[in-house]
Every structure is written in structure tokens, then in C-alpha cells.
Amino acid sequence: MTRRIIAIVLFCLIGFAVCAQEREAPEVSVYSLGDQTFSISAGLTVPLFFLGIDGSIEPAAGHLRLGAVGSLRWGSFLNNELSIGVELGGMFAQTVLRRTIIILPVSSVVAYALRFYPFEVLMHATLGVDFMRLDNDLYVGPLVKPGASFYWNYSSEWSFGLRAEYWFVPELYFGASPPKAESTFGNFLTVTLSTLYHF
What pLDDT, in 10s, does the model give residues 25-81? Predict the structure, then answer.
């Protein structure tokens, strides 16, 4: 009787171990050379502060309200972790005087993938040019956006998650008109919902 109980317990343990191995995610790379991704993101823009060229800091809350942001991003993997790509996006927010500021960036993107199946984290840095418009004034300047995306892998092709990015937007002027002292550095935080397609 005791031997039968021991045999049944061992049989059950072996069965559980086999089932666990079958359920466990295979240790394979999700991405490889030439794999491509396309993502769509949309969410909120939080104006943080403006940094003056003289080092002064002014909170953005007195100038801008919460805004909206969206982007389309394509990437191609160079190996299992590293990808490069391009992004087209747009952000707008209203000033406290109900004027609308629009920023349209065109950027290159470098991303590094970390995986914790069924999740993955993409650490990315974006460098590009932004077209900023306020009323009839147009400004073209540089843009830097470090950030990270957290995805849940729904399938081998589709992933869903959140993206957070820090926008550093220099607005630089040279010469006497407008004066150099008007140069400023905008700082924004964007939080978006993101869908990633892998092909």
C-alpha cells in the first residue's frame, strides 16, 4: 500500500514537471536580423518646465495645459536586441491664453530590446528635427527623446503596452533679432498606449 502511494505521488510529480516544461516559454530569440516592427502610439503630453539659456527654470504649468501626442514608428533589427528605425509624430497643447502649439517631429530611432516572456521592454533614444508652430510663427530645430516601452506579447506578431518618453526641445535663437536671451529649452513627458506589430 505504501509503495503504491509513493508510486502515485512520483507519477503525479513527473506529470506536473512535464506539463510545466510544456507550458514554459521556449528559450528562443523573438527578433533576428532583418525582422521589422511597426508601432502606433497615442496618449498624453505633460508639459514639465522651460529651461532658460541663463539657467533659469520656469514651470510649464503657467504656460501650457495637458496636450495630446501620437506617432508612427518603423524599425528593423540588426541582431537579436538592437534595432534602428524612423518615426513620424505629432504633439499639440493649448496655452493658458488658448493658443495652440503644434510640434511635428521627424526622427531616427535606436532601440534595445530586453525580454521577460511574455513581456518585453524596449529602451530607445530618438534624435530628429521638429517643426514647431504657434499661431503664424514657425520654428525648425532639434529634438531629443529618450524613453522606454513596456509590451505584453499577445502573440508572435502583436504586442500591446505603454510608452513613456522625455522630450527635450531646444528653441535656439542667434543674433540680435530675436535676441539670444530668448532661447529656451522645453521639457515634456509623454505617456502613450502603444500597439506593436512584428513582421
Answer: 444 457 888 899 999 999 999 999 988 887 788 888 888 999 999 999 999 999 999
Domain annotation covers residue 166:
yes
- Residue 34 has a pLDDT of 87
3-state class (DSSP) for residue 117:
coil
Instruction: Identify the burial level of 125 via C-beta atoms within 10 angstroms of its C-beta, where 0-12 means exposed, 13-18 middle and 19 or more buried.
Output: middle
**Residue 109, CB half-sphere, CA atoms under 13 Å: how many?**
30
CA dihedral 135, 95, 92, 52 (to 10 degrees): 90
Which runs of consecutive H residues, i.e. helices, occur in the chain? Answer: 2-23
Predicted TM-score (pTM) of this structure:
0.78
What's the number of domains the chain is made of?
1
Domain span holding position 121 = 27-198
Apex 69 CA angle, 42 and 181, nearest 5: 160
Residue 136's SS3 state is: coil
Q: How far apart are the first and last CA of the chain?
A: 57
Query: What single-letter DSSP state applies at residue 27?
Result: -
According to DSSP, the residues that pair with 75 across neighbouring strands are 37, 85
CATH of the domain at 92: 2.40.160.20
**C-beta separation of 72 from 88 below 8 A:** yes
**145, burial (CB in 10 Å: exposed 0-12, middle 13-18, buried 19+):** buried
Residue 158 belongs to some domain of the structure: yes
Residue 4 lies in a domain: no
